[in-house]
Amino acid sequence: MARYTGAVCRLCRREGTKLFLKGAKCYTEKCAIEKRNFAPGQHGRDRKAKIVGYGLQLREKQKAKRIYFALEGQFREYYEKASRSQGVTGLRLLQQLECRLDNVAFRLGFAMSRRQARQIVRHGHVEVNGRKVNIPSFQVSVGDEIKVRPNSQKLVVVEGAREFASHQAAPSWLSIDAANLSGKVLALPNREDINLPVNEQLIVELYSK
To answer: Does pTM top 0.90 for this prediction?
Structure first.
């Protein structure tokens, strides 16, 4: 399966903003943006070009892709489905990304980052409504119960995840049972619940051309 395997801090530096890809580290002085807030590469310090128009739209799309670790084709499919559904296209796009199983596992505190949550899902440690699901992009629905499998609860490290969760407000669209490593989807997230540095309207404008 295709996936990004490089250093994730380079992605934050390329976008010039924190994408919160390393969990609790992103809130400390060790964050790459705090230490080297310029684009990666030999000429990173010299890249001062002003980004306008298409460049802005592209950067917003790349930020969203990198935050959720979605592939280009996957992301295009999310947009196409959002454009065909009722409601605001940009919000529907973000809701689909938020309802990925790896993201929900991250939001529930099973992992310190979406990347770690993706690994937990791929290794078969998570179940949805009592059935094992090992597909990170699996779309959860309202009413679904997500849980760390009983035999995997000793293997999943959640201490760091809980520390990271202390930096964030608990998602209002999820109910969390930390003691049993489980949670339930109460509703689709509102835009206020998706606290990410992404302007979804620019993404819609990019794909609408």
So the answer is: no
